[in-house]
Amino acid sequence: MQHGMGAPSPPHQPADPSAWAHGPRAHTPGAAQGAPPPVPPAPPQHYPYPSAQAAPPPGPPPAPGWTSAPVTAHMAMPPAVTGTGTATLAVLLIGPAGAGKTTVARHWARRRRVPTAHISLDDVREWVCSGFADPQAGWNEHSEAQYRLARRTCGFAARNYLANGISCILDDAVFPDWPVVGLGGWKRHVGPGLLPVVLLPGLDIVLERNAERSGNRRLSDEEVAAIHGRMAGWYGSGLPIIDNSTYDVETTARVLDDVLARAITSPQTG
């Protein structure tokens, strides 16, 4: 079965990628309430929300275009991603170990202008502190059961967020040649509007990033190469694929948002 970033590749199965229908619903937040009139000579009011305060004086117009520079503590906050607008989305970011799925998913979620949650399968699997079945010690019925439980938990959390108007993005290493626990399983757990996108940089990139890991999320070079090779099966599946070999995190997040914007404006059927 497929697994999170810190688990080895499951046995090979025949390929059977399926087409996906995209139909996320739109969500438009309610308008903010205006500020109450001041009552002199009372002291200035301190409102909890910026939308209730008086508008600040206009500043200089923003510079055109996007910046692709990495975000640091010494830089101004980059503009939020806007391609997907206020749509309430359920996104599944797929990729091999070292593709940057978790980092990109978290960055994309934080830069949206509307409430968005990030749910990582690896993080949920590792909620089990005592008795954790590490697939690197051998893929068996216990590790498989914990994986299935983690995925159901992720799906339940995603549906709960969506029902409350909050978008979500999940990340998992889903293999195209493992249909039993592949995209169909995620679709059943999250819903038919799930939008899968594949993040697939070059092998040299994922090997370099894997080498920087520690603990049970670091795999051998041979295992990383095997997983990366199987992920190449997504080519020809019809799913959007982003090669982020030369992108920084923010650029990748913006490309992801553009891909999702096209998916919700021109959904595929099948």
Helices and strands in order, then pairings?
Layout (H helix, E strand, L loop, with lengths): L89 E5 L6 H11 L4 E5 H5 L15 H23 L3 E6 L10 H8 L4 E5 L3 H9 L9 H11 L9 E2 L6 H17 L5
Parallel strand pairs: 1-3, 1-4, 2-3, 4-5
Helix pairs in contact: 1-7, 3-4, 5-6
Model description:
This protein has 270 residues and is an alpha/beta fold. The protein is 31% helix and 9% strand. It has helices at residues 101-111, 121-125, 141-163, 183-190, 203-211, 221-231, 249-265, and strands at 90-94, 116-120, 167-172, 195-199, 241-242. It has a 5-stranded parallel beta sheet, sandwiched between helices. Helix 1 (101-111) crosses helix 7 and helix 5 (203-211) packs antiparallel against helix 6 (221-231).
Summarize the structure.
The protein is of the alpha/beta class.
By CATH, the architecture of the domain at 84-263 is named 3-Layer(aba) Sandwich
- Describe the sheet with the most strands: 5 strands, parallel
Question: Which secondary-structure class do the elements indicate?
Answer: alpha/beta
Order of strands across the biggest sheet?
Answer: 2-3-1-4-5
Overall radius of gyration:
21 Å
Distance between the termini: 24 Å
The overall average pLDDT, rounded, is 73
How much of the sequence lies in strands comes to 5-15%
Instruction: Work out the helicity level.
Output: 25-40%
CATH class label of the domain at 84-263? Alpha Beta
CATH H-level superfamily title of the domain at 84-263: P-loop containing nucleotide triphosphate hydrolases
CATH topology of the domain at 84-263: Rossmann fold
> Could you say which overall geometry the principal axes of the C-alpha atoms support?
globular
Run of helices and strands: EHEHHEHEHHEH
**Low-confidence parts:** 1-5, 12-33, 39-78
Number of discrete helical segments: 7
Number of strands: 5
